[in-house]
Write a structure and sequence with these properties.
Helix content is 35%, strand content 20%. By secondary structure, the chain is an alpha/beta fold. The protein has 3 domains: 48 residues; 186 residues, 3-Layer(aba) Sandwich (Rossmann fold), CATH 3.40.50; 38 residues, no CATH class. Strand 4, helix 8 and strand 5 form a beta-alpha-beta unit. It has a 7-stranded mixed sheet, sandwiched between helices. The chain has a 4-stranded antiparallel sheet with strand order 8-9-10-13, with no helix packed on it. It has a two-stranded antiparallel ribbon with strand order 11-12.
């Protein structure tokens, strides 16, 4: 598997032309990078950057899409509310069009701590603005991060949520699930492609696009407690049906009220300094751009004397 350094093989201007021609960016990247089985992380990042803003625009312009999204978010909120979480992390938040609807429908006393991340910095910036506008809440912490290397400590959140975020990552499902499980203290609640429950035509489409599969089997093989796995009928996309997968961690320790970031490379605590984040042991600085922490491995800057600045 290649890592984000593969981005050097991709020209963003070239990919923009592919996107503007309404061609599939991930398929184009697969062919260019010579990867037929998986969508490389660099390709996903480029695709997300190019798409940034499109979901928010669709919410504003398409009443049917907006109504479906509102119903989807309300249904997810009802499921999450049963666990009365004080804190929620959405991994792969996109533009927060789902998260905003979820939070709007949760009881006010729940989820006082909201964190969310995505691979694309531009999407995260738009997600933060959209979330604040739609919920009236300005205390959420949005950051750029990777599903396989989350810049947060073990057992950080009562609920970790995904909504079709693992979707384009076939071949990396095991690593991603273990990382999501690591950072939850209570429940991992996932709404992802229902490959095993889908019709043959839908499965064939998922295979073509490199969508995830086998999530329940990975969880069971790890010895985790799968409390729910079934089709999630609220989302009506028959070409890409959703399933709900709920995994209970089953530990008595609650997630801590105070949150902090850790290095996505070595796992050591990050300290805020000069408007950015620094890990002294690794000598690495992670920049903060327009208020959005950039906490991916590729964003790390070697500057061991940063605290002297």
């Amino acid at each position: 598997m290649s890592d984000i350094s593969e981005v050097q093989k991709l020209s963003h201007s070239e990919l923009r032309k592919v996107y503007e021609a309404n061609e599939n960016v991930l398929r184009f990247c697969k062919e260019k990078l010579g990867s037929n089985a998986t969508n490389e992380q660099a390709a996903i990042m480029h695709a997300y950057e190019l798409q940034a803003g499109s979901y928010i625009n669709k919410m504003a312009e398409d009443p049917d899409y907006r109504a479906e999204k509102e119903q989807y978010g309300k249904a997810i909120a009802e499921i999450i509310a049963a666990y009365a979480p004080a804190s929620i992390l959405e991994a792969g938040v996109g533009e927060a069009t789902t998260l905003a609807e979820v939070v709007k429908n949760l009881p006010a006393a729940m989820a006082q701590s909201i964190y969310a991340f995505d691979l694309s910095w531009s999407r995260v910036l738009m997600a933060r603005r959209y979330f604040e506008q739609k919920t009236g809440r300005s205390g959420g912490q949005f950051f750029t991060g990777e599903l396989e290397h989350i810049a947060l400590p073990d057992n950080s959140f009562d609920v970790v949520l995904t909504s079709h975020a693992v979707e384009p990552n076939h071949g990396r499902e095991k690593e991603i699930l273990h990382e999501l499980y690591r950072v939850t203290a209570g429940h991992l609640i996932m709404f992802e492609p229902a490959y095993e429950l889908a019709e043959p035509a839908a499965r064939e489409r998922m295979e073509y696009h490199g969508y995830c599969r086998g999530l329940k089997d990975i969880a069971l093989a790890a010895g985790w407690n799968v409390v729910r796995c079934e089709l999630f009928g609220v989302r009506k996309d028959t070409a890409n049906p959703s399933m709900i997968l709920v995994i209970e961690k089953g530990q008595s320790t609650k997630a801590p009220a105070e949150k902090h970031f850790v290095s996505p490379i070595g796992g050591g605590a990050l300290v805020a300094h000069g408007g950015h984040y620094f890990n002294e042991e690794e000598g690495l600085v992670f920049p903060v751009l327009n208020g959005v922490p950039y906490l991916t491995r590729s964003a790390a800057l070697l500057a061991s004397h940063f605290l002297e600045s």
